[in-house]
Amino acid sequence: MRSIVLASLTAFIVGLATPMLAPDQALAAPASHSMRAMRAMMAEMKAKDPQGFAACEQLARQRGYSIADFGMSVMMFIDGCISGRFR
User: Fold this and answer.
1) DSSP labels, the chain
2) Which of 23, 33, 34, 78 is deepest in the core (most CB within 10 A)?
3) What does the pLDDT look like over 38-82, one tens digit per residue?
4) pTM of the model
5) What's the domain count of the chain?
6) How far is it, in rounded angstroms, from Cα 61 to Cα 51?
7) Closest CA to 62 of 84, 79, 77
């Protein structure tokens, strides 16, 4: 009887612990993939219009964006600036 209870309890604990580990591992891959995609998009914008990109990058700095991080908000700002939404 004890062995059945012990085996059931062990299976229950392992079942609870396993899903807690999987989300951390699953989130690591998309974050690196999205960073690569974002950097590729920034490089593409820079290649299409180098002067416009530099002007928009300077405007982003003036408005307080951290250019060193190149986060999604900086990319969206520069994309909008190149499109003519911000000046």
Assistant:
1) -HHHHHHHHHHHHHHHHHHHHHHHHHHHHHHHHHHHHHHHHHHHHHHH-HHHHHHHHHHHHHTT--TTT--HHHHHHHHHHHHTS--
2) 78
3) 888 888 988 998 999 999 989 998 988 887 777 788 888 888 998
4) 0.56
5) 1
6) 15
7) 77
User: What is the residue range of 15's domain?
Assistant: 2-83
Neighbours of 4 (CB within 10 A): 8
- The answer to whether 13 and 46 have CB atoms below 8 angstroms apart is no
Residues 39, 41, 43, 49, CA torsion sign: negative
